[in-house]
Predict the 3D structure of the following.
Amino acid sequence: MLSSLAWAETQAIIAKAERERAVTGLLGDAARELLEHGPWRRTNVVPDWTFALQFSRKWPLRGADLWHLAAARTLQVELPELRVISFDERLRTAAAGEGLAASA
């Protein structure tokens, strides 16, 4: 699943990498293409507020990462196979602690 927030964050990262010339426009375009047509479904999930409150007290996460963790737990109710994939160490640790981390 790809949330609208994850999509927007990824678009911002691609654009920043292009502005800083860390990637070429061609590579940026390829990344956008993969983001649009990758092996995931889009979702407009609204995280359960209870999960967000619970996780905010348990894990030292930034706002967007807290949102993603709560969204993943919310979706996991209907999709038990759902797992979190992240480059952020704190989010990976929290996801593992909640049984939501992807296998390494």
Q: What stands out?
A: The helical segments are 4-19, 25-37, 49-58, 63-76, 89-97.
